[in-house]
Amino acid sequence: MREIKFRGKDIVSKEWVYGDLLQYQDGCAIRSCKGHYHYGVIPDTIGQYTGLKDKNGKEIYEGDIVYDLTDRLEYEVIWDEETLAFLLRACDGHIMSFFAPNEYKEVVGNIYDDAK
Length: 116
Prior knowledge:
There is one protein chain. The chain has strands at 6-9, 16-24, 27-32, 38-41, 47-53, 59-61, 64-68, 73-80, 85-90, 95-96, 105-110. The protein has a six-stranded antiparallel β-sheet with strand order 4-3-2-1-5-6, with no helix packed on it. The chain has a five-stranded antiparallel β-sheet with strand order 10-9-8-7-11, with no helix packed on it. A hairpin with a 4-residue loop joins strand 8 and strand 9. 21% of the residues are buried. It is mainly beta. It folds into two domains: 6-44; 50-110, SH3 type barrels, CATH 2.30.30. It is built from no helices and eleven strands.
């Protein structure tokens, strides 16, 4: 079974926190995987773990920028409501699935820390 977890940027420290997503009327929090701490997070930075890892064993999250070694392009990891799947979107709008083996993909950043 795929591990369900999220990440988001802590409102105070601006550091990434990982764990279970908690949603409230006035905001969101993440309950840490490493203890019983709750961190208020910036809602726009919340992304779900895809259940996949890149060629280096790094977890791939929604909002990550992934470099595909086969076609030498960068893609943003997105969640598609229509297909209920994580997809890769290139800067030209081209969309593809995670069909190619992940040993050809590498997380090189994310849309929050590496915005251009």
